[in-house]
Amino acid sequence: MRVRLLAVIIALLLSTVCVTSLAAQELRVAAAADLQFALKDLGAQYEKQAGTKLSISFGSSGNFFAQIENGAPFDIFFSADSEYPRKLEAAGRTVPGSLQIYARGKIVLWAPPGTSLHFEREGLSALLDAKIQKVAIANPEHAPYGRAAAEALKKAGIYDQVKPKLVFGENISQTAQFVQSGSAQAGIVALSLAVSPAMKDGQRWEIPADLYQPLEQSVVILKSSANQNAAQAFLKYLRTAEAQALLARYGFTTPPVDAGTSHHL
User: Fold this and answer.
1) What is the DSSP letter of 140?
2) What angle do CA 55, 105, 191 make, to 5 degrees?
3) What secondary structure letter does DSSP report for 35?
4) How far from 68 is each of 74, 93, 138, 224, CA to CA, in Å?
5) Which one of 93, 132, 147, 210 is CB 3.0 to 4.6 Å from 140, fit for a cystine?
6) Quick check: helix, strand or coil at residue 51?
7) Per-position DSSP letters for 58-111, written without gaps between them
8) Which residues pair with 215 in a beta bridge?
């Protein structure tokens, strides 16, 4: 009887260990919407190599910042800027030393295929055309790409004229959807979305970098994470040539590759 009871206890303990081990193989990631395609590809690539699955939620950086402050159970936060991660770091909500810049984003003026607008010739001034009744940008209140768009319009000297036409997406992905669906005739979106399969055939013009503050995008590991070792391993992978090349394909400017990091972990 004692032997049977001992066998049951051992089986239960082994079951608990297995469940814990499996749970540790999934990272809960909060990610800025400009990473919608790039991070999905990175996650799939990483899962094949390391066996760790990324469960990714995409949205605006500001909204995720608020959720994390209120205890949202994420392991990693990829922001579209560095301000929100630094605020979390200052508040003691991140793993010390985990904050790193993973890419620099770019904004582009975009319109659907077949438009008669002349972005290359007119630049942002093309938005003054009477044919454009609505211009989509991300909400500047909580989306770094929206702030960059508004800043570019102001520096170009046309913000006040374009302001009545503006419609705001909750995040940069929704902003792109507004233009794709025809709800807006043009928009200022992330280059990483403009080069995606659904948008690559549209007309796009890269907005000069001197018209907006650099979109230095940072990532942090949250102190509340129960999977900090797995999170550290993924951030290490981000610094490999393989991961940096994938980000570059989506239009991101990437920091130097960590020469001490193995290509295959």
Assistant:
1) T
2) 90
3) G
4) 7, 9, 21, 10
5) 147
6) coil
7) EE-HHHHHHHHHTT---SEEE-SSSHHHHHHHHTT-B-TT--EEEEEE-EEEEE
8) 105
What does the pLDDT look like over 224-257, one tens digit per residue?
Answer: 999 999 999 999 999 999 999 999 999 999 876 6
pLDDT of residue 262: 35
Structural contact between residues 103 and 253, judged by C-beta atoms closer than 8 angstroms: yes
CA distance 144 to 61: 7
Cα–Cα distance between 124 and 156 in angstroms, integer? 7
- Lookup: tokens for 163: 């302001």
The pairing of beta strand 100-105 with beta strand 215-221: antiparallel
Distances (CA, A) of 224 to 111, 134, 227, 233: 42, 42, 9, 17
pLDDT at 85: 98
Q: φ, ψ for residue 72 (rounded to 5)?
A: -55, 135
User: What's the order of all strands across the beta sheet hosting 53-59?
Assistant: 53-59, 26-32, 76-78, 215-221, 100-105
Question: Which segments of the chain does DSSP mark as H helices, in order?
Answer: 2-23, 38-50, 61-69, 83-90, 119-122, 144-155, 159-162, 172-181, 191-194, 228-238, 241-249
How high does pLDDT run on average in the chain? Answer: 89
pTM of the model: 0.85
